[in-house]
């Protein structure tokens, strides 16, 4: 089942917290494919979720 939820706060933290609190089995995320300076300056939500989540994360490059 797919569910849409709108949360307020740090995106990576909110995604991980929501997944932990709602018995989520897998987090699926898309990425814009930025690299280099853009990624360093802007950060990567998918990267932060992947590093901090205990739940498996599937990242799909768009």
Write the layout of secondary structure elements.
Layout: H1 11-21, E1 27-31, H2 36-42, H3 45-52, E2 57-61
Features:
two-stranded parallel ribbon, 62 residues, alpha+beta, 3 helices, globular, Rossmann fold
**Can you tell me the CATH architecture?**
3-Layer(aba) Sandwich
Number of domains: 1
Spatial strand arrangement across the major sheet: 1-2
CATH fold call: Rossmann fold
Distance between the termini: 22 Å
Structural class: alpha+beta
Structure description:
With 62 residues, the chain is of the alpha+beta class. Helix content is 42%, strand content 16%. It has a single domain, classed as Rossmann fold (3-Layer(aba) Sandwich). The protein is globular. The two termini are 22 Å apart. The mean pLDDT is 87.
Quick overview of this protein structure:
This protein is α+β, with helices and mostly antiparallel strands and 62 residues long.
